[in-house]
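Exercise 7. Given the components listed, write out the predicted structure of the assembled complex. Treat all entries as one system.
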Amino acid sequence: MTSAMQIHLHSEHGCLNIIVGGTWRLARDRPDEIRQALELVNAPSTTGVLLKEDGLATWDSSLLVFLVQIVRSARERKIALEIQLNEGLSRLIALAFEVKSQQGSQREKHEPGFLEDLGGKVLDLGPKIINFLEFLGEVIPALGRLFLGRATMRSQDFFQALHECSLQALPIVAVTNLLFGLILAFVGAVQLTQFGVQIYVAGLVGIAMLRVMGAVMVGIVMAGRVGASYAALIGTMQVNEEIDALTTLGISPVEFLILPRILALVLMVPILTIYADVMGIIGGYLVGTIMLDISPVEYLNATMSMVNVSNGLIGLVYASMFGFVIALAGCYQGLRCGRSAQAVGQATTTAVVHSIVGIIVMTAIITVICNILNV
Amino acid sequence: MTMSQQASALIAVRDLTVGYGSFILMKSISFEVHTGEICFITGGSGCGKSTLLKVLMGLKSPQKGQVLYDNEDFWAADSSTRQTIKRNTGVLFQSGALWSSMTLAENVALPLQQYTDLPAAQIAELASLKLALTGLAGFEDYYPSEISGGMRKRAGLARALALDPAILFLDEPSAGLDPVSSRHLDDLILELRDTLNTTFMIVSHELDSIFAIADKIIFLDNQTRTIQAQGDPRRLKEDPATALCALDFLTRGAAGKNAVQENR
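Answer.
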């Protein structure tokens, strides 16, 4: 077997002879002659190139790419070029220069500048908003049909969705809210003990948890857990043409896939919020009784007297709205997902980001409304 | 073409232009398919066969033109008419597109639950029957992820058959099937046509199947973006008027795979 790549270079009256031989394999080590040959072709003293082979054993694209580079340089410099290679190599070299791109398949390479990019994004915003409103326009009538009993939602899908966002979420909701109650109590205790009214920690934790923080914490946990999973699930169904399969059967994906998920979250987020409130209050209770030396009975009495039912109810309103926002964001991203694995990943991320932003915007809106209504 | 005037067409495509944005995939194509016909859509890769099928089954709207089902323009119709048309069509997607959260039996049963008031026991019975028809008896309780690609495709066909639709759209039904299963599929298609008078629109490049069972082929060309040839494949092969590209495709393919190599 002939050894590795061989290149012989010699010039005669300005004509560069390149003789290739040996075994050519795509590998890491390339002989220095390759670089030399390319330099020589481009050298002003070279007025012609002759490509020859001698003792060429097996070869692959590594040889081809080298020869193509030589030929291209020679053609660019418009110097004489003669190819005395075997038929296979000559044909492949010819092919490399003959490839005509299919009509319309060549993408325009265009790097937008900052302003153009920004402008494009702003212009994209309009269609995006319209797209989302169209989606809402499908969801709301579907909800209406559901209450009239005419929607094609299977009860088993609803119970499945309910299961996914209930029991499995209990541990994480418990941990996050217990700790959150602890943190609230700690932060409050530092301030309140300065005035000797540490008993108000009970009210602080109770009201904060019940009124808004319990719902927000559950919302954020569910956005990460459930919103993301909805986007990934529905997005993957889109990739697998499963959504198309529903559509061609005349089954509305909104009614069949999205209604059960919206309902499940609108129902379960408030229930989880009640659980989260209790956990948060337990967190506050632990700080109050252990760190602040408030007696258990005193702490519980203080909580009972300072917290009222309307706090809890407002919390539940927040919670059900958060459930709606999370389900909507997750399902919307899933349904509008592109047809690739990358698009599913993107849809999932966007769903979580939009859910969390949605939760915060919703909190602000409801808080302002509550303020105006004085509740 | 002469016989198309005898009865009104079940599917009539008129002056259809389809594209993505400014990229025109096919322009001003027209054809007709009659009840009980087995029609293949074929052509080189990237000529828009699958996209045409999508337009026919109502998944992608055309830029121009009409798709008529029994003289009813699908893309101009209201949602209840579209619903009726969709109920009468069955679709087998390239990948099978089974609903992955349901078993095979549930997959086949869903269209039945959707459109009929049959008791659950009968629906289950029917689902088993359709699965058996496609050679999947005994796989009722399997999930799509637990079976092979070819089986998924057959299960997809069973689901498409669930409602005994008047029109079946099959997107590359034999891709990924072994030759024997492929022949079985051809037999099944013929049997359905003969017993239920089902009309088939099939996207495929399987030349053996085309010559074995097609009543009509529509040959799309990816250079001119039009229909290069349409009609009975056997007659097209002999017709000198048939455009060169389609003729080449048909004869060379039919002559066997060696032809391609000899030509090099």
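Discussion: The mean pLDDT of chain A is 89. Chain A has twelve helices and four strands.
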